[in-house]
Design brief:
By secondary structure, this protein is an all-alpha fold. 78% of the residues lie in helices and 0% in strands. The radius of gyration is 19 Å and the shape is globular. The mean pLDDT is 83.
């Protein structure tokens, strides 16, 4: 499993697409956070990163599918997955190796954004007057959100050999899990199911962690979501063995 993980991680690090995607993510976050008037911290006037943590999930909807879309789709298109499947590895070992390789790259893309925390800490009056606990909680929430979106991306890549289709499916599923379920909960027709839909909403649990309180229910929800989509990926690649 470690050999597959290392190969997949090095493959991602050697891919120009990964660096371009992360660069676009950081550029978009920087522009939205510091330059565009409607979302700029400088115009907002408060030393907090609420704007960034509100925008980051929508940027993740495109960043993570772009990173994970090649995990299975490219190997199946080029025929190299057959060689991988004949090695003494279980389907779960292959899936977890690819999943963790993509997740590490997603977490790596968050490290440059720590400069935002330092910047607002210096800009605050007095210096350092920021809600560090809420920011740490929001970063933990982003990691859990990234873990969930990565699982969705791996699943989308496992059901097709076309990377563009895998990207489109992953973006749609991420959008529905984050925003679509919330929108359904507000529909009058589904009002009897509002409690269930809100519990299934990724946004609801992400916002809960972002408040700075790490609730066990939120952690269990994200871990269950990750396992559910990786289980679907397991059935997708297992059903194609012949």
């Amino acid at each position: 499993m470690y050999a597959v993980f290392k190969r997949e991680l090095f493959s991602l690090l050697n891919s120009l697409m990964a660096y371009i995607t992360i660069g676009i993510f950081l550029l978009a976050a920087g522009l939205l956070l510091w330059f565009f008037p409607d979302t700029s911290i400088l115009d907002y006037g408060y030393a907090e990163l609420t704007g960034f943590f509100s925008l980051a999930p929508f940027l993740f909807m495109f960043l993570i599918p772009a990173i994970s879309m090649r995990s299975f789709a490219e190997e199946r298109r080029e025929g190299t997955y057959i060689l991988l499947a004949t090695r003494p590895l279980t389907d779960w070992q292959i899936i977890w190796a690819k999943y963790f390789a993509c997740l590490i790259l997603v977490v790596f893309s968050l490290f440059p954004t720590l400069i935002y925390y330092y910047t607002i800490s210096e800009l605050a009056l007095p210096a350092g007057n920021v809600d560090t606990g809420a920011i740490i909680g929001s970063y933990i929430g982003l990691v859990f959100l990234g873990a969930s979106f990565t699982a969705i991306g791996v699943f989308a890549s496992s059901i097709t050999r076309n990377q563009v289709i895998a990207f489109a499916i992953a973006v749609f599923l991420c959008f529905m899990m984050y925003t679509g379920v919330d929108a359904m909960a507000k529909m009058e027709l589904l009002s009897p199911l509002q409690g269930i839909l809100l519990f299934l909403s990724v946004n609801e649990h992400y916002q809960s962690i972002s408040r700075g309180v790490l609730d066990t229910r939120d952690v269990v929800y994200f871990l269950t979501l990750v396992f559910f989509f990786l289980l679907l990926a397991r059935y997708a690649i297992g059903g194609r063995k012949w």
